[in-house]
Amino acid sequence: MKRFKISEVHRWLNKLPENKWRKIYKVDAKRVAHFINHGGNVELPSTLKRKFGDSGFVREKKLAKGFLLNKIDEKKQNESIFRSLVKELIYEEIKKLDRSGILKEISTESRELRLYIDNNAGLYKTRYIPILKNLSKFKKKGKYKSKLAIKAFMYLIDDGAKLYVKDFGGDTKTFSKEHKLELAKDYAEEFESQYNNQEFNFMK
Known about the structure:
Blueprint: H1 6-15, H2 26-38, H3 58-96, H4 108-118, H5 121-141, H6 146-168, H7 177-197
Helix pairs in contact: 1-2, 2-3, 3-4, 4-6, 4-7, 5-6, 6-7
């Protein structure tokens, strides 16, 4: 568990509305920090104990819990802000993208997933390139079928959607079957163009 500094706890205590007109001494912050870092059931060191008053330190334990809950909320907010910023960047990249018609006729959801997949080095090496190589073999043998190509690219898209949800949140319904199929068809059409232009050595 992360240890929090007394100075950090002191600053947080000073910002609480209930302490607006109340001076927070360093010893108060030390008590709260001790319960934060060691748990509410531990005993305070003799140097932090009171001679009079609340010997159970109920208020300090409550403040320790409030501090930790505040930290959890901050983390959630930061993650939410990070996801929003990444999505904004993705949309900006989509706007800049000029690939001779590619991505212009498909839905926003499909474009967003496509851009994520295209920029994932792991998916490119382990899924995308192997699919292109296999489809190229079928082309050379004269056994290529567009339905098989769409099915092959669905594996890439399913993996991409899972990683997207893992990185940015959401659930399995973030991208519908229709969006995935739309994107698979887009990939299949692009492959045929790539093969005709022999963009990769293994296509020659």
